[in-house]
Design a protein that fits this description.
The protein is an alpha+beta fold and about 90 residues long. It has three helices and four strands, in the order αβαβββα. Strands 1-3-2-4 form a four-stranded mixed beta sheet, with helices on both faces. The chain is globular.
């Protein structure tokens, strides 16, 4: 997939996962339905964002955060705490 410098976030406004997509841009974290994770990750990759995933055991879905691969729950807590503190 090639990077397109003229691609806009609202190009995906017709997608059912658009709200989660824009939340990721705002705070670097979002929760997506399992069926939408692949599409969201591909859309974010078009903006050169790599994502990491972690299953959300409290609610249905998957949490996407910036980075590569998959993380465990302890790493997720540390990541969120740092984001809240602005680190």
């Amino acid at each position: 997939m090639l990077y397109d410098p003229f691609l806009r976030k609202d190009s995906f406004a017709d997608k059912p996962w658009y709200d989660e997509f824009t939340i990721f841009f705002a705070i670097g974290v979002c929760r997506a339905e399992d069926k939408d994770v692949k599409d969201i990750r591909e859309a974010l990759a078009r903006f050169l964002y790599a994502t990491r995933t972690i299953p959300d055991y409290n609610k249905p879905g998957t949490v996407l955060i910036a980075g590569d691969g998959t993380i465990d729950a302890d790493e997720m807590e540390i990541y969120i705490a740092k984001r809240i503190r602005g680190e």
